[in-house]
Predict the 3D structure of the following.
Amino acid sequence: MFRLHKKINEEPVVPDKLKEKIDYKIFCVITVIVVAFQFYLNTFKSPDDQTVDFLASLIYSLTALIAAIAAFVISRRYWNSEVFGKSYLALAVGMMMNVLGEGIYYVLEQQSQVPSPSISDWASLSFYPLAFYHLTKNISFFKPTIRKSLKLFVILMPIVITSVYAFIQFGEEQAADTTFFLGLAYIVGGTVILSASILGAAVFRQGVLGVPWLILTLGIVLSTVGDVLYSYLDVYNLYTVQHPVNLLWSSGFLVIAYALYKHKKVI
C-alpha cells in the first residue's frame, strides 16, 4: 500500500491518482446501528423520559468522539506536515467541541436550567470555523483551478438556505432576538462547511483523495442537513429526542470517521 514519504517540515508528496474502493458494507453497518438505536429510543412512551435524553445524548457524544479520535490519529501521524497535521488537529478539536457542547447542554437540561442559549452553543458553534479551516487548508494546498459555475454554486447555496431560514424564522417569531441569531449562526456555519466540502470533493474527485473526500462530504452533508432540519423543527417546536433527525447526526459522524480512515490509508 502506498504511503506518503515525508521529511521534517516538508509536505507529503501526494500522487495524482490512486484507486481506493468504497466498502459499502460499512455504510450498511452504520445504517443498521443508527436505525436500530432510533427504533429503541422510540420504544419509550414519552420523549421526556430522562432515559431517552441520556441515551440520545450518549449516542451523539460517542459518535462525535469516534470521529474526533480518528482525526487525532491522522494529525499525530502527519504532525510534521504543515497542512495535514494542523488541519486534522483542527477537525479533531472541532469534533471534540461537539462532544463538549452536547455534554454541557445535557447537564444544564438535567439541572432544569436553560440549555440554549448557553455556553453549550459557543462550544458547538466553534466546530464550524475549525472544520472550515480543515477543509480550506487542504483545498488550498493543492492550488486547484475551480470552474466559475462551481464557485457560484458554493457561494449561493449558503446564502439561499440561510435566507429561507431567516424568512421563516422571523415570520414565525416576529423578533430578531438571541434565539433568532443563534439559529442563524448554526445555519450559516453548517451550510458554509457543506459548500467547502462539496468544493473539496469536486477538486479531488479524480485524484488520490477523491474517495475519502466523497465520503467526508457525505458525512458532512448528513450532519449539516441534521443541523438545518433541527433549526427548522425548532422554529415550530416540533423537535424531540425521538425525532428521526437524530439519525442524521449519529450516522454523519460515523461516516466522517470512515472517511478519515480512508484518508489514513491513502496519505
